[in-house]
Write a structure and sequence with these properties.
9 helices, alpha/beta, 25% strand, 301 residues, six-stranded parallel β-sheet, five-stranded antiparallel β-sheet
Length: 301
Amino acid sequence: MKAWHLVEANGANELRLVEIPQPTPQPHEVLVRVRANSLNYRDLMIAGGKYGPGINLPLVPLSDGAGEIAAAGEAVTLWKPGDRVAGTFFQRWETGPCKAEIFSSALGGAMNGMLAEYVALSEDGVIAIPDHMSFEEAATLPCAALTAWQALVTHGHVSADQTVLLLGTGGVSIFGCQIAKMHGAKVVITSGIDEKLVRAKSLGADETINYRTHPAWDEEVMRITGGAGVHHALEVGGHDTFEKSLRALAMNGTVSVIGGVSGFSTSVQLRDILTKNALIRGIFVGNHDMFAAMNRSFSRH
């Protein structure tokens, strides 16, 4: 079969299309014929050698993919050939809180990922995709969608009387917009490009801020919310944005730390955390149970 290998962590130019043996599923594995993949910022970081230790090369990249089961191991009872599934980001995080040992089961990083014609995955490391979704749509769920879901729903308990701040128009933010609107919340979203803000409006955003026009966009958030601030901020920017997200927060609000597009180091005034009674929570994708709950909700809505 064909697969892509990242042979050196020096950028996407180091990807090579290779011919390797098609995997044979072990007793508790399924063989998935991959029909679609999606890209995340994490994939770019891994390709560029900026993700950290624990990456063994050559690597089949990408955490996200969807397809149908081509074969099942002899001990598999949950799945049959033809079932439409997506892989789970963490192959060994089925339920409960995050634990250190799950990180060694991350697709496209600690383990080979989804950028191949066929992949063998744990029978508990796949999930049925909603009937109404195409493979392309379903391939965007495992990382970006589930991250936004855990932040806003599993832990955030977002509700109709709340406001959500989303930074930029990447996958997490756009899923955050749709999930927040599904729960009746108000959405404020930022971008440096007006055309993207128009598109975000069409996807449900209530208020938009161009952070190039408004460099002090945290002050604009406070103006839009009448000085109240936002109840949830999905923090994907890191160094350049975290402090402003905190300042834009309402009393008792939550900053969900998801990424660091501008870097992972930052300095903040601890007084802002204290006086706002703020909750700062790290969010690292999610588990199988969260994924299942999200898919049920997406199907209903």
